[in-house]
Amino acid sequence: MRGVIMHAPGDVRVEEREDPTIEQPTDAIIRVEAACICGSDLWPYRGIEPVNGPTPMGHEYVGIVEQVGDEVTTVKVGDFVVGSFFASDNTCEICRAGYQSRCVHAVGMGSLGTQAELLRVPLADGTLVATPSAPTPEQIPGLLAASDVLGTGWFAAVAAEAGPGKTVAVVGDGAVGLLGILAAKQLGAERIIAMSRHADRQALARTFGATDVVEERGDAGVAKIKELTGGLGAHSVIEAVGTQESMMQAIRSTRPGGHVGYVGVSHDVELPGLELFFSGVHLHGGPAPVRRFLPELIGLIMHGAIDPGAVFDLTLPLEDADEGYRAMDERRAIKVLLTV
Amino acid sequence: MRGVIMHAPGDVRVEEREDPTIEQPTDAIIRVEAACICGSDLWPYRGIEPVNGPTPMGHEYVGIVEQVGDEVTTVKVGDFVVGSFFASDNTCEICRAGYQSRCVHAVGMGSLGTQAELLRVPLADGTLVATPSAPTPEQIPGLLAASDVLGTGWFAAVAAEAGPGKTVAVVGDGAVGLLGILAAKQLGAERIIAMSRHADRQALARTFGATDVVEERGDAGVAKIKELTGGLGAHSVIEAVGTQESMMQAIRSTRPGGHVGYVGVSHDVELPGLELFFSGVHLHGGPAPVRRFLPELIGLIMHGAIDPGAVFDLTLPLEDADEGYRAMDERRAIKVLLTV
After folding, report:
1. Phi-psi region of B67 (alpha: psi -120 to 50; beta: other; left: phi over 0)
2. What is the mean pLDDT of chain A?
3. Among A59, A54, A58, A61, which residue's Cα sits nearest to residue A5?
4. Pairing, β A336-339 against β A314-317
5. Best CA proximity match to B145, nearest among B234, B229, B60
6. What is the gyration radius of the CA atoms in chain B, in angstroms?
7. Which one, A194, B25, B28, B107, has least CB within 10 Å?
8. Which value does ipTM take for this structure?
């Protein structure tokens, strides 16, 4: 089969890979219908994370079940399925508490490389959720978004306790931040402040439900959020970047007793204890337990209540994955969908 | 009047201070019945925080209202009252959300010095809670504890979401940690693990509701908590120390999706972002909004449901405050009550 391999920073190729096979009776093999390129794929692409030899890429996916192991009971051949970027058994104590991304048997899908024609999904019963019927072509991008960026933005909004009567600020205007806005809107937030200085992203933010846009960053951005919230700060802040500046911007934009939901993978971040203490905020985040939200998100997408697929502004065939990486690296694209 | 003044690290004296007077129509003057020495008073005593000239000391207090300003309506002369270490209006948006320690008009009582015969309490209506009847002498230590250490331990347990079915670990065996155990027990926790290596504190921990004691610290302490919780970590962890080691011990002892309630004032603490991200815990803490809990705590104490006063293991007259500071500094006493 064909699949994306990263050989070194900036060097992404589509090559022949061995077809995956059922290794455990709990595995399924799916024929990938669409995959995508994640902001986190740019860390190794930019050399910020090491590339240790040729590495299969991708952790987001939707597809059709082609084969199942003997113990798989909840999905069957022919089902259209969505999974998260962590395979999880969905039965352990951590999964049952809603933290499937930290399942005691979790397998990172990134290690399997979903930017490919075929994919082995471990713990298929716990990991995959079948759509109630075959999706239309228009629904596929939304379902693919549910696999990570939507699920992650949704988790951030839930972690930030976005809801009725709340003012929500969103730090980061990438796909996750934008879908955090969509999530906050769905969860009933009263006011949603997008922090963005790019016209195209501001427009999408407003489409997804942003009521205000703040272009300032850092201390100036914090001051602006305070100004918009009677000097108190937002009730809920979504952090979707993962840098020292963005984390501090998020914490400082939150009122005492408010909630920060952070999903940007923290790189070189050190949180100062005394400032955090006196901020009085709630801090929750980490790798999003997307599986918790998949049934609800699939329902919303299939019923047309939300259109998270709008976040994909460039669609390319799998064979052109290298151009997709370049477009995201150069910020010419917010999020790239790869058709398989 | 007589009052405690710190002149320099290790130099605490009881001296004549000017009697406080009503300065604002929202003030009350109370005759202090009992005050106490806080673990945080030891930071300047030990020279870890600077002492900028002679400083009135103390922020915990119970007493009888002696005089009220023209606008005070909820307490009257003769009432026995308890207040928290922050004066708060209890009407602003932050107070109404339950974060009175971060009231937009908050006044730190430490700046007024409660280790004294008389005390001016700003924002008396918002700050003071009168007991339903005059307390017995046996109830006074408990009510005094409610002013800070009990209220702080209670907040930590609430922030850690201690409750039915939960395993709660407590890092720190000072007065706050011990009363965090009492709070977790009252909140219905199933299992409470005290982390302590002092026999007297272990005994008090068990009296307050600890079901297990772990003597190990740091990585060994974390390993022990994991061992006691099926490898997962505790659901809820109370942090009541405020050092880098204790914060990391608390975070690492918590299962993914679990809750850390931290109330130790963080000194020289830097939380590593990537580890915090992958821990998947909820982190909440800061200066405890004790006022939120006072009505409930006073009720429990007056009805004899809890006896937090047991945390005071040394009682001295105000005039002997210097000996009280020494006893706490040398860890000969857990918590010192000063009778006035």
Report:
1. beta
2. 97
3. A54
4. parallel
5. B60
6. 19
7. B25
8. 0.96
Record the tokens describing residue B307, joined without a space: 């006896």
User: Closest partner residue to A247 among B266, B273, B280, by Cβ?
Assistant: B273
Single-letter amino acid, residue A49: E
Contact assessment for residue A211 and residue A204, using Cβ atoms and an 8 Å cutoff = no
Q: How confident is the model at residue A265 (pLDDT cuts 50, 70, 90)?
A: confident
Q: Phi-psi category of B32—alpha, beta or left, where left has phi over 0 and alpha has psi -120 to 50?
A: beta
Q: Is the pLDDT of residue A267 over 90?
A: no
Terminal CA-CA length for chain A: 11
Which tokens is A246 given?
A: 């963005």
Q: Using beta carbons and an 8 Å cutoff, which residues of B are at the interface with A?
A: 93-94, 97-99, 101-102, 104, 230-232, 242, 244, 247, 255-257, 262, 265-274, 276-287, 289
Which residues in chain B touch residue A234, judged by CB atoms under 8 angstroms apart?
none
Tokens describing residue B95: 């107070």
What is the C-alpha separation between A75 and A91, in angstroms, rounded? 16
Locate the DSSP E strands across B196-268. 212-214, 234-239, 254-262
Banded model confidence at residue B265, pLDDT cuts 50, 70, 90: confident
CA distance B315 to A180: 55
Residue pLDDT, tens place only, B159-186: 999 999 999 999 999 999 999 999 999 9
Quote the CA–CA distance of B117 and B321 in Å, as a whole number. 13
